[in-house]
Amino acid sequence: MRGAAPAPAPARSTGGNGQVGPPPPRKAPHGPAPPAADEAVEELEELDEEAGQQLAPYMDAVVKVYCMHTEPNFSLPWQRKRQYSSSSSGFVLAYGGRRWLLTNAHSVDYHTQVKVKRRGDDRKYLARVLSVGVDCDIAALEVDDPAFWEPSPGAPPPPVLDLGPLPRLQDGVAVVGYPVGGDTISVTAGVVSRIEVTDYSHGSTDLLAIQIDAAINSGNSGGPVFNRACQCVGIAFQALVGSDVENVGYVIPAPVVAHFLTDYMRTGGFSGFPALGVQWQRLESEALRRAVGMAAGQKGVLVRGVNPSSAVAGVLRPDDVLLSFDGTPISNDGTVPFRTGERIAFSHLITSKFVGDVARLGVLRGGQELELSVTLSKPTSLVPPHLSNRDPPFLIVGGLVFTTASEPYLQSEYGSDYGSDAPVKLLDRLYHGFPSAADEEVVVLSQVLACDATLGYEDVYNVQLLRFNGAPVRNLVQLAGLVRAALAQAEAGAQAQEAQDAGAQAQPTGTQAGGFLRFDLEYNEVVVLEVADVLRATPEVMRSHSIPTDMSAGIRAALLAQEQGQGQGAASGKA
């Protein structure tokens, strides 16, 4: 499975100055080795030997995870790709009075079947996926067969790991799992190189992570990382790859694992990590600090924009200066104190809390210091980085194929270089756009399937839909409802005209549903279809392209819920 973070596509990450874009590249040092290199090699060799001896009793807690994946085809959203298999690692952990079987979220991404096998066992057991935290790349599994949890005849009970503390720099660690290159368990040792807020490639979320110099290869994903006390201090999940890097691996630390498990125990699912939903700017310029009314000695960051779907939308304003979070002062570069002699991005304070928690914000507004209270939320993205393992939505109108813009969709259309190859308007929505409401989406005309109704529009593709029949388009469900209402109104008008003609004993005119459907697109493009052509062409297009339905199941369910809600409202009004 993916043990390495894909590097080509720019990750959506808030950099040091609050700009949205790719994180700064990390490069391995060049030049001659330092004088202490020989001592470091000897220390690592000793660590390898110690790891093998000390971890022996705990290795039986590590399992191999087998998964069959069937991912959707985001370019043809009514289809699925060919299934493929993967293998990764997992382990049994004790937390909150119960035992958990954990692995990476990307190890069970779009799974159709998951099996696990213990070390030294020849049987594979079916597993259920309890919860998937795409943001933090953690998944919790459950095995219903009691034989999986029972010890082998004559053997002690299988071990269960404990979460350890966050390690220090240069602490020795060992990565245990089932990487490529063999079938048996593997142990690699190294030291902690760095602890900081890092972009999680699978969920495009900035969370605390540990960088180590132990090898993390494909198949290591989901395996535990041990400290010298044989405690689990994290989960191996990604590596930095490239010609100028070597042995740079990343570990999900114990605090993030504990957050995921606590969230599941509190909510029965995964509610995610909260965020303020603001774009901010460093205040390292003295002139800028004076311009916003900061006094000498005051520090903070400048709020440049606020996501309207965030809970802080009614609290923070552009040009506010964020001075502190829950009493912890924020520096001009956006960092806060972290342990002894270290600093870290202030977003770590926010993601350490849970959705629904209340936080105190120290704000400077117009030269006056304020303390504001806010209930933390998880704001929505205008172009989401993932669909949380849901199928992509779609709508077929004649030969027009509509879907919503997301990073998986852009990657499907433009490959791993979508950050530079995708249309600039869509990239602007991706990196700098805020939704005006929580349900706003970027609806795109993905492609135009050739038929009589769409003659002349075949070269239109991947462009945002702005308006339908003059009405602004907010999301795909709304568009489906507007199109359905327009078609129904045209059909009703045609039937009424036929009835009127029949009552007047007029000669049949062959009148069909009249009117037009107008789609206003980005770049001032316009697509107009006749209603009669749409009613005739839609079933023909679906048949010729083997499309089972004219809209995705989620869109249809949302429309049905709206209709039922309107029906109940009308009934209560009559009563």
TrEMBL record:
<dbReference type="Pfam" id="PF17815">
    <property type="entry name" value="PDZ_3"/>
</dbReference>
<dbReference type="Pfam" id="PF13180">
    <property type="entry name" value="PDZ_2"/>
</dbReference>
<keyword id="KW-0378">Hydrolase</keyword>
<dbReference type="InterPro" id="IPR001478">
    <property type="entry name" value="PDZ"/>
</dbReference>
<feature type="domain" description="PDZ">
    <location>
        <begin position="274"/>
        <end position="376"/>
    </location>
</feature>
<feature type="compositionally biased region" description="Pro residues">
    <location>
        <begin position="21"/>
        <end position="35"/>
    </location>
</feature>
<dbReference type="InterPro" id="IPR041517">
    <property type="entry name" value="DEGP_PDZ"/>
</dbReference>
<feature type="region of interest" description="Disordered">
    <location>
        <begin position="1"/>
        <end position="41"/>
    </location>
</feature>
<keyword id="KW-0645">Protease</keyword>
<feature type="domain" description="Protease Do-like PDZ">
    <location>
        <begin position="383"/>
        <end position="553"/>
    </location>
</feature>
<dbReference type="GO" id="GO:0006508">
    <property type="term" value="P:proteolysis"/>
</dbReference>
<dbReference type="InterPro" id="IPR046449">
    <property type="entry name" value="DEGP_PDZ_sf"/>
</dbReference>
<comment type="similarity">
    <text>Belongs to the peptidase S1C family.</text>
</comment>
<dbReference type="GO" id="GO:0004252">
    <property type="term" value="F:serine-type endopeptidase activity"/>
</dbReference>
<dbReference type="InterPro" id="IPR009003">
    <property type="entry name" value="Peptidase_S1_PA"/>
</dbReference>
<dbReference type="InterPro" id="IPR001940">
    <property type="entry name" value="Peptidase_S1C"/>
</dbReference>
<protein>
    <recommendedName>
        <fullName>PDZ domain-containing protein</fullName>
    </recommendedName>
</protein>
<dbReference type="InterPro" id="IPR043504">
    <property type="entry name" value="Peptidase_S1_PA_chymotrypsin"/>
</dbReference>
<keyword id="KW-0720">Serine protease</keyword>
<dbReference type="Pfam" id="PF13365">
    <property type="entry name" value="Trypsin_2"/>
</dbReference>
<dbReference type="InterPro" id="IPR036034">
    <property type="entry name" value="PDZ_sf"/>
</dbReference>
